C-alpha cells in the first residue's frame, strides 16, 4: 500500500502540470486581459465624469476633463502602460549594456521587453512549487494570503454539506433497499428525484424567502458566516452563532449530493442482498439485523466510499460559488469567480492550483479509506 500511495503522490506533479498548462493556455486566448480591463475602467470613469461635468457651469470645464493634460481625457500614456505590464509580469525592464543604476522605465537607457507566454508559464510554476502565487492585481494582499483567508469558509461549507448528505442518504438508502417496492420506497424515491431536480441556487433562494426574513419567518441570518460581535462571545456562543449562520448554506449545498448518494446506497445494498453469501448467512439462522449490518454493510459501503471524492468535490466546487454569492459568504469560490471577471490572473491560477491539489489529495484519501473498510483490497497487486 505504501508503494501505491507513493506512486499516486508522484502522479500529482504531472497532473497539476497538465491542469495549469491547459488553464494558462485557454486564459491567454480569452480576449480582454487585465491591461484591457484597467484601460476600460479608466475610460469608463472618464466618460462618467465628463457626463457629470457637462451638466455644470461652462467655467468649470477649464482645467478639467477638456484639459489635454487630464489623464482620463487622453487615455493611458505608453510609459504608464509599459509600467503596468512590468508590474503584472507581462514585461521586464531591460537596460543598455554598461548601465549601473537602478532599472527604471523613466531612464532613457532602459526599456520594457515583452516576456514570452511560455517563459511566463514556467516562471509561474517555479513560484508555485513553494506556494508563492504572487500578488493580486486588485488587492493589497498576496494571493496566498487571500487563499488562506477564504479557504476555511469553502472547506467548512463543503465538509458540513458532505457530512449532512451522508448522515441522511446512508440510513435512507438502507431503509429503501430493505423495503424495496413498498409505498415507503415509492414516495421517498419521488421526493429524492424532486430534490435532485431542484437547482441549488433556486433552493437557496427558497430557503432565504422562507427562513431568512424574505417573506415569512426570520429564523436564520441572511448573510455572513458569523455575527459582528462574534469576537466578544464565549466559546459556546461562538459555536452556536457559527452553526446558526451556516445552517441555510449547508442545506442548500446538500440537496443534490444527498439525492445522488441515497440512490447509490440503495442500489449498492440491493446488489449485495441478492448475493449467495447473504442467503447462506440467513440459512445459518443469523438475524436480519446481523446479516444486514454484519455482512452486507461492509461490502455495500465500498461503492459509497468511492463516491466520497465526487460528492465532496461536487459540493465544494459546483455549488460553492452560487451559494457563497447568495448568502454573502466570502469564500474561495466567490474569490475565483470575481478573479475570472476581473482577469486577475494570479488569483485565477492560484485558486485553480489549490482546487486541483485538494481534488487529487481527496482522491488518494478515498483509496486509503477503501483499504481501511475492506483489507482484502490490494491496489498494488491489482496494478501488477
UniProtKB/TrEMBL annotation:
Please report the record's description of how this protein sits within the membrane.
Multi-pass membrane protein
GO cellular component terms given for this protein:
plasma membrane
User: Could you tell me which Pfam families the record lists for this protein?
Assistant: BPD_transp_1
Q: Which residues span the membrane? A: 9-30, 153-174, 186-212, 242-265, 300-327, 347-373
Keywords, ordered alphabetically: Cell membrane, Membrane, Transmembrane, Transmembrane helix, Transport
Q: Which PROSITE patterns match?
A: ABC_TM1
Q: Extract the signal peptide range.
A: none
Compartments in which it is found:
Cell membrane
Please name the InterPro entries in this protein's record. MetI-like (IPR000515), MetI-like_sf (IPR035906)
**Where is it mainly found?**
membrane
Q: Which GO terms describe its biological process?
A: microcin transport; transmembrane transport
- Domain of life assignment: Bacteria
Matching entries from Gene3D superfamilies are given as: MetI-like (1.10.3720.10)
Residue ranges constituting the ABC transmembrane type-1 domain according to the UniProt record: 151-366
The Swiss-Prot or TrEMBL record describes its family as follows: Belongs to the binding-protein-dependent transport system permease family.
Name of protein: Microcin ABC transporter permease
Lineage of the species this protein comes from? Bacteria, Pseudomonadati, Pseudomonadota, Alphaproteobacteria, Rhodobacterales
Amino acid at each position: 500500500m505504501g508503494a501505491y500511495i507513493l506512486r499516486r503522490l508522484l502522479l500529482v506533479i504531472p497532473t497539476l502540470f497538465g491542469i495549469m498548462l491547459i488553464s494558462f493556455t485557454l486564459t491567454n486566448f480569452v480576449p480582454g486581459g487585465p491591461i484591457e480591463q484597467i484601460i476600460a475602467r479608466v475610460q469608463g470613469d472618464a466618460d462618467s465624469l465628463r457626463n457629470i461635468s457637462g451638466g455644470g457651469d461652462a467655467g468649470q470645464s477649464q482645467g478639467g476633463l477638456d484639459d489635454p493634460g487630464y489623464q482620463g481625457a487622453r487615455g493611458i500614456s505608453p510609459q504608464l502602460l509599459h509600467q503596468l505590464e512590468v508590474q503584472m509580469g507581462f514585461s521586464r525592464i531591460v537596460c543598455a549594456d554598461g548601465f549601473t543604476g537602478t532599472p527604471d522605465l523613466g531612464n532613457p537607457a532602459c526599456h520594457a521587453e515583452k516576456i514570452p507566454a511560455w517563459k511566463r508559464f514556467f516562471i509561474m510554476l517555479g513560484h508555485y512549487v513553494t506556494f508563492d502565487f504572487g500578488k493580486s492585481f486588485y488587492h493589497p494582499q498576496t494571493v496566498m494570503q487571500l487563499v488562506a483567508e477564504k479557504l476555511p469558509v469553502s472547506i467548512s461549507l463543503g465538509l458540513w454539506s458532505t457530512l449532512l448528505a451522508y448522515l441522511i442518504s446512508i440510513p435512507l438508502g438502507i431503509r429503501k433497499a430493505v423495503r424495496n417496492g413498498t409505498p415507503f420506497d415509492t414516495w421517498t424515491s419521488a421526493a429524492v428525484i424532486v430534490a435532485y431536480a431542484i437547482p441549488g441556487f433556486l433552493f437557496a433562494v427558497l430557503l432565504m424567502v422562507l427562513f431568512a426574513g424574505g417573506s415569512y419567518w426570520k429564523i436564520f441570518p441572511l448573510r455572513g458566516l458569523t455575527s459582528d460581535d462574534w469576537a466578544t462571545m464565549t466559546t459556546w456562543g461562538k459555536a452556536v452563532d457559527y452553526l446558526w449562520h451556516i445552517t441555510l448554506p449547508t442545506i442548500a449545498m446538500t440537496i443534490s449530493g444527498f439525492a445522488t448518494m441515497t440512490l447509490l446506497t440503495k442500489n449498492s445494498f440491493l446488489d449485495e442482498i441478492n448475493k449467495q453469501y447473504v442467503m447462506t448467512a440467513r440459512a445459518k439462522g443469523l438475524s436480519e439485523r446481523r446479516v444486514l449490518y454484519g455482512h452486507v454493510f461492509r461490502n455495500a459501503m465500498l461503492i459509497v466510499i468511492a463516491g466520497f471524492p465526487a460528492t465532496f468535490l461536487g459540493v465544494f466546487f459546483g455549488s460553492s460559488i452560487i451559494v457563497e454569492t447568495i448568502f454573502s459568504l466570502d469564500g474561495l469560490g466567490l474569490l475565483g469567480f470575481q478573479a475570472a471577471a476581473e482577469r486577475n490572473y494570479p488569483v485565477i491560477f492560484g485558486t485553480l492550483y489549490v482546487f486541483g491539489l485538494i481534488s487529487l489529495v481527496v482522491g488518494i484519501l478515498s483509496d486509503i479509506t477503501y483499504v481501511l473498510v475492506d483489507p482484502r483490497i490490494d491496489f498494488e497487486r491489482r496494478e501488477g
